[in-house]
Predict the 3D structure of the following.
Amino acid sequence: MSEYTDHDITGASIGMVEKQFFTFAENDPGFLLDSGASLSPVTLAYEACGTLNSQKDNVILVLHALTGDSHVAGYYQAQDPKPGWWDIMVGPGKGIDTDHYFVVCSNIIGSCMGSTGPASINPETTQAYGMDFPMITMGDMVRAQKALMDHLGLDRVLCVVGGSVGGMQALEWCVRYPDMVGSAVILASTTRHSALAIAFNEVARQSIMADPNWNQGHYYTGAKPDMGLAIARMIGHITYLSDESMRMKFGRKLQNKSALSFEFGAEFQVESYLQYQGNKFIERFDANSFLYITKAADYFDLAKDHGNGSLAKAFSAMKSRFLVVSYTSDWLYPTYQSKEMVKAMKKNDLDVSFCEIDAQWGHDAFLLPNPRLSDMIRGFLRSARYES
Amino acid sequence: MSEYTDHDITGASIGMVEKQFFTFAENDPGFLLDSGASLSPVTLAYEACGTLNSQKDNVILVLHALTGDSHVAGYYQAQDPKPGWWDIMVGPGKGIDTDHYFVVCSNIIGSCMGSTGPASINPETTQAYGMDFPMITMGDMVRAQKALMDHLGLDRVLCVVGGSVGGMQALEWCVRYPDMVGSAVILASTTRHSALAIAFNEVARQSIMADPNWNQGHYYTGAKPDMGLAIARMIGHITYLSDESMRMKFGRKLQNKSALSFEFGAEFQVESYLQYQGNKFIERFDANSFLYITKAADYFDLAKDHGNGSLAKAFSAMKSRFLVVSYTSDWLYPTYQSKEMVKAMKKNDLDVSFCEIDAQWGHDAFLLPNPRLSDMIRGFLRSARYES
């Protein structure tokens, strides 16, 4: 659910990419949402790389996590300090090989990364939506992505790939559009948010809404709820790591390597790291978007929404092949949740491969370079391609 | 580290108790702290129950957790809605049997429950200390408790008993006063805070300090940082539970048992529960005390403070017998941390019993009724008594 960038980028990058925009639902009744509300117009930011073949059967749809964006790989400009968030996986010769596949990554509605969200202008008021933005669901995000695929003339997806909240979208894709999705890679994800995951999200939301600058969501012309959003991010960041990874990375090391200061402030390195992550986040993310997207994740419950409480039933129309990956130290969406998913898939005789990767880096592990994961995805896509 | 009260209280209570106060260090140089600062005067609130025998060899010192107090068992008044925080363990015929033992429970310095803390009046300014209160350590807390024991004329403690932050104090007692402590019961505790534990505490502190009412700690004559403190408590509360306990207790149950509202606010029961816990907490606890005590817990590091980095060395002067208990679902102070402690004790040929209790309730398990724990403590105290 977060972006982890302090690692070496290996292999070639796809080079330059361009963020593109697709706007739809300009006219009545607009884009109808699961809540019953409607949104008009709707813009999605997206990026594409690789080459679409003549049969249009080499499409990979990559779905990003909570605070991600469409910039999955490559650079906007030569001088960019870093590439897209999954450049380690998407590129020539990489796990998702752009020499073979046409990769599309769409930003989600509700985000602040180019798509319509609470920071967008509400045409009815000519002001930013703020909390007048309607509640959105994972299903809404996916139906908007479907509109994008229609617009691009793509009626078949070789594979949907997503980690964390991106994995939720991938699952939703398979449930809603079974005839369109050949296969799916679900990384460090779940079919529904646990009470623990909801609890962390709710506390993070409370910290934003407790910031007086939040002002009921109307802050776009004044000071922003930076402190609340930074704290929300710090809470999230803890859940993306693990006891083990924090022990290895920080332990009890002091920031200044000398004795205790006996003062408040960032004394331990882990404190300093979290504050850095919080402060970095407020530069790039909108607090209201954080509220809406976390709520969509909390609402996510495939069994309830599509199976009347039964996950096996929710999966009964699915036709995709699956690769499901969990990580031993991921305590946000632990392995048992992936196993539940796999069990429900197998009940429907779906072709599913499951792997629990032994990794100490917690939930964030899916964003870190891992040759084993790259090889697994490469092999899975190859067989999906030959069988499609 | 929290108080869990929604359970049946079994067995008889000790009945009426009275909070008492002991004040010392009124004169120069006051009470010298580990930080180098001094505090004057120092008051400790404490309570006692059971009867001290003529040999004065039946003393049990109970040490409370982060936000606890001296009110370990019994009632202040007949109409009190609930007894002290460990009434399930302390009383006639209970695990710590007041028919046999004289039980003392002392509040910690830095607290707001009757002892000197940041909400106390600074004699130099005649205002509340606020952030002028000096930083305190677990060692300071224990040295103040030692002064109380001296005052009470108790030069030998049959057993020090503590869970969580209380367990840290108990360990500190054994390290600092090896000739005084016959035995110790350490529940759900650790010899040092991990990066994960520090991280959660730091985010909780940040949420208090981000509340504009906090006002650099000067809020005692105006509005209090209630929202920040409530969020801090919510963060803490999540760490006291477990994925499993939250799933069993709340799952994805909605507060109003009907459909999703598609609105922000406490929709899921777990959200409502956390908000309730946060709001209940602000009625009884002081935000600055929370800052100081969590910092003392983060500073706690027996190996560094007493063993030049070696836990075995830190424990080398210890003479007590130990009962160490951890809980399978405690992810704040996981079992491996208790095992490290036990290993260092064994290296010093100390008499130590270790038990990992299979419990789903997370860190809070040590405060819940558990006949196995009661029996274990009863048996441990009995043999400690016969061997003393």
Q: What stands out?
A: Confidence is low (pLDDT under 50) at residues 1-9 of chain B. The domain at 20-194+301-387 of chain B is CATH 3.40.50.1820 (Rossmann fold).
